[in-house]
Design brief:
Length: about 210
Amino acid sequence: MEIIWFDTLASTQSTLIEGLKHKVFAAPVCIGTSLQSDGRGSRGNGWIGEEGNLFISVALRRSDLPNDLKLESTSIYLAFIMKELLASLGSNVWLKWPNDFYLGEKKIGGVITTLVGETLVCGIGINLVSAPDRFSVIDIVVDSQKLTGYYVSLLSELPSWKQIFSKYQLEFEYSRVFFTHHNYEKIALKDALLLEDGSLECDGQRIYSLR
């Protein structure tokens, strides 16, 4: 997979999506930037960060994704691959359902996915060197471009959803002290049931990540 790096962008996610629509880029491809000024987060929130943090977006053909992976759970899937990479480098990061990277009780990053035709676009932002108030930075020293290279190399042979889920369902227990949002409502994860496709059953309703 080709990696295209920029000095600065408003948003890697928006740049890649527009580039795919206008055939400037074609999957599989990864774009990254050293500085991002107007990033996209979940639920319409922004993700703006300083130089040195990780800002990348990856485009994958839907046909290249595992057959047992539901589209609604791609955020969990691709985020957990990054989480395992960071853990292999010595970090204590964990993945809060469905797409947030945490150290202890503080968020250090997240993932957002969007479908463009038959191409999945996954944006990843992680605080490697600096963080705004109420957030934290990762507990290891790693260069953003090197981390991107490591991550992209892992995407050349994608594991099955079953392989990822068997590990993630153990880690899900850390999420139980938190909340998630569904239809703009705040829902406690304390008694949530994690289903095999990555969705949750909470108070009798089925919730997918859809991010």
